[in-house]
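Progress report, Aim 2. The chain analyzed during this reporting quarter is listed below.
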Amino acid sequence: MKLQVAIDLLSTKDALTLLEKVAEHVDIIELGTPLIKQEGLAVVTAVKAAYPNKIVFADMKTMDAGALEADMAFKAGADLVSVLAAAGDSTISGAVDSAKKHNKGIVADVIGVLDKATRVKQLKALGVQSVELHAGLDEQAEAGYSISKLLEAGRGADIPFAVAGGVNLDRISEVEAAGASVAVAGAAIYGASDPAAAAKALRAKIKNLG
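Predicted structure tokens for the chain:
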């Protein structure tokens, strides 16, 4: 299982400062939607230039103009780009076509999708590389939220999937057991008092699980 850091900081400088501490411990660098909206796709280019051997994931959360937005992100240096699973099939197919052209990958984010299991099957048929079973920050703040619902959807998925939404040192073993190919940690890393130690501990836990 790979470890992905989701960076929801709001400047390229802060993102690069964080990565100086944690990059060695992660496989995938996700540049969060707020960061890309604040800094533009230049942050993708800057991070890929600084870490050319890491997988750089532009979390675009595309809802329309799938081919166009994916093409923009790939040209900026992204290896992976997200499209919303709630988008129309033509939008997702357009993004997938762009990924094939660039020899890159599309991740479909199921945030906000109620029937995740059904949509995941459809997404596989549309050709996405993987899906991200994702509960956003607002959903995580709701009373009664549990990562267990995401893991349940993953157990029935016949496609590589990531889990994002409350992944931390205490829950990462559950993510691994559910069959996830990627564990996504955001606040558990960038919000830690010692981000390097937090990322290192997550990496060690994954190795021990394996």
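The beta strands are 2-7, 28-31, 55-62, 80-84, 105-109, 130-134, 161-164, 182-185. The mean pLDDT is 95. These observations will guide the mutagenesis work planned for the next reporting period.
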